[in-house]
Amino acid sequence: MSSETRVVVVDDHQIVRDGLVALLGALDGIDVVGAAADGRDAIHVVGEARPDVVVMDIQMPELDGIEATRFLTARHPGVRVVMLTMNEDDETVLAAIRAGASGYLLKGSGAEEVETAVRAAASGGMVFGASLAGRVASYFAGASAPAASRADDPFPDLTERERTVLELLAAGRSNDAIAGELYVSGKTVRNTVSAIYAKLHAAGRAEAIVKAREAGYGRS
Asked: Residue 65, CB half-sphere, CA atoms under 13 Å: how many?
């Protein structure tokens, strides 16, 4: 078995994609075995190239990086994904983690930080940029908190993503706006909204919004 780490680079901007291919390809022990311009292409390239690590952009046409990551980590459990993006808002970071990402770096990260993240991911570790590490630690601390500590949650059956979508619903956002804000597909939002209706026992959007606002959602 080769000791080299096999990497696929996914980014819809050719300059960024080519730069990452050149950067990683010049490193000892790393072999760039493929590149893709969007999430759908990435699924095919990863299926054929069988990399150890995928360096994945988030906001792309056809299929965004978070949905592509969710698909790839489910279909290929051994593949590790490192997100590289301009966006560092909490919900996008957490959505990437929940999708199965092993790392999350900003596009302004230096070459050494990118290399460290790829090597760490290949070794089974998780790496997040310095500006993100504290928020990631807080997320894992909250996720592991016992249910009793969240007893005052008005909708305890909702997942983190469903709470986020409900907050945006209550604030008056459309499905398309929510999809754009969370960098997920419209289909994902529609499915999430349907799950929210079921868990809130709401007949539709209006009733769900009323219940959410009565519980304090959408006031920020």
From this structure: 28
Angle, helices 160-170/186-200, rounded to nearest 10 degrees: 90
Average pLDDT, the chain: 83
DSSP code for 161? H
What is the C-alpha separation between 81 and 66, in angstroms, rounded? 10
Summarize pLDDT for 35-93 with one digit per residue, the tens: 999 999 999 999 999 999 999 999 888 888 989 998 998 899 889 999 988 876 667 77
Separation between Cα atoms, residue 161 and residue 166, nearest integer Å: 9
3-state SS assignment for residue 36: strand
Residue 38, in any domain of the structure: yes
Task: Clarify whether residues 138 and 154 are in a common domain.
Answer: no
Tens digits of residue pLDDT in 154-178: 888 888 788 888 988 888 888 888 8
Neighbours of 68 (CB within 10 A): 27
- Expressed in angstroms, the distance from the first to the final Cα of the chain is 54
Q: Say how far apart CA 205 and CA 201 lie, in whole Å.
A: 11
> Of 93, 111, 142, at which residue does a domain stop?
142
Q: How many residues does the chain have?
A: 220
Residue 2 is predicted with a pLDDT of 53
Is residue 219 situated within a structural domain?
no
The whole-angstrom separation of Cα 133 and Cα 140 is 11
CB 101 within 8 A of CB 65: no
